[in-house]
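Why this split exists: single-chain examples teach little about how molecules sit against one another. For that reason, every record in the complexes split bundles all components of an assembly together and asks for one structure covering all of them. Below is a record exactly as it appears in the raw files.
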Amino acid sequence: MFGRYNDTFRYEFGDILVETVRIGGLLTYQRRCEGQTFERILVSKTGEIIINPVEPVNLPKEITDYLLMEFSPMLIEPGVSQTVYLKFPIEVGVFLEAARDIEVLDVFGLGTQKYTLYGPPTSGVIARWYQSAVYTEAPPVESFREGVMELSIQNASHEWAEVSCAVFDSVDMKIYYNDVVTTTAAMKIITPTMAETDFTDAPLRPDMTRSIELYTARKIPVINRGYLMEWGLS
Amino acid sequence: MTFNVTEVLEIPIGVGSITVESLLYFAVILVVGIAVARVVSTNVRRALMERLPKSERELLVKLVYYGIVLWALVIALPQLKFDLSGLLVAGGIAGLVIGFASQSVVSNLVSGIFLMFEHPIKIGDGINVAGVSGSVEDIRILSTIVKTHDGIFTRIPNEKVFTSNITNYVHNAARRFEYQISVRYEDDADAAIRIIKEVIWTHPFALKSPAPSVFVDNFGDDGVNLTAYIWAPARNWWDVRTSLLWQIKQKLEENGIEMPYPQRTVWFADELKVTTGDTGTKGAEE
């Protein structure tokens, strides 16, 4: 499903149907996903449709930029680094590209979403919540539902640290895809209750395509800022 | 030919006793004043770029600019042997009159400036202030515009906003709401709690953490009263609140748990004798 399309096309996979058809001479984009439908008439001469995985913080509606990954608790020795693999949720973004502009047409995804609060209600942040097991190798994932996150955890503190969650600012998220969707992230533990997280702009495998992020398409200026987890690591 | 600067400066220009020197002093003070006014007003404009709409920002910048220029003029005028004492007396009286007249305007202006720096409310926030509930449409230099929940435009003077208790419903990231749910005495309250928790879990914006809490609160006249505390994002809590309750009711009924109707058990001291008459039967047949 991911890729570039011109004029009419049709893609069907399980509960997902994405297509453009000509209805009365007008090009119409239609999407059905788990019973929900979306349709738009496209008036375009040269525009291309791009479908790729996007940051998983837009459904059922966009209320936050943050993603909280919860995983099995890990105790990490001071000074030790470890790379683990997690499954993270993905959403599918459909973009319209013209010579000098790109526009978000549709965002959809499989499965349900759950949100949580990281930190106290007064100063914490709302985050998309997702739970994953911890893997030592890239695990097999369900197509169009999950991707693989390579997470490098470094305990830069002088104490043992217990970690069971990582909060990311999805604005920095860099997603790559081919037959599998991947992202690469890092977590640097500063103290046993504080850590910095960030995404790395690197594919997990050499032959992957970089996704167009929603922030790029929405023309929102982004500064790579990372996120400081100051409300605990578990 | 010798050229004496002191002598040149002391040459009268022909208007009273004003010399070239005093004229130069006047000009220099005025030029410096204008330069300072420009620098300050530029910085004021920059500082308020994000905080004020353009029209009000420009008004404030002009006020600052002309205020400084006027101040420089007042300092410079004595160089031209201009007696300001009369002006000061007149200005004092005028100031007193204007001051009394514009007391509330100035108060609103100062309150508006404090509001902009303290930031208790932002445009789009759901608030309750001075008895008015709604969302903030605009924060102006003299007043705050609130659109009430039924779409009414309400202008509240900034002084009132600043001195009132402000409740900002969306200042925090999350907020809690509660449901009171009753089930019949013959229903399994534990099962009801489990079902309610399951329904809450299915809603994306019913937050996982802080976890929802569902418990038997008290025994009512008609049934067992359960209370559910649910946390939701502050900006979406109303949507969650309105959508979840009906889902809970439906799910409970699907599982044979129903809301109790008001009922009263009456005990008779003596054995109750029921008699039926022919008239009643006839009446029913008719």
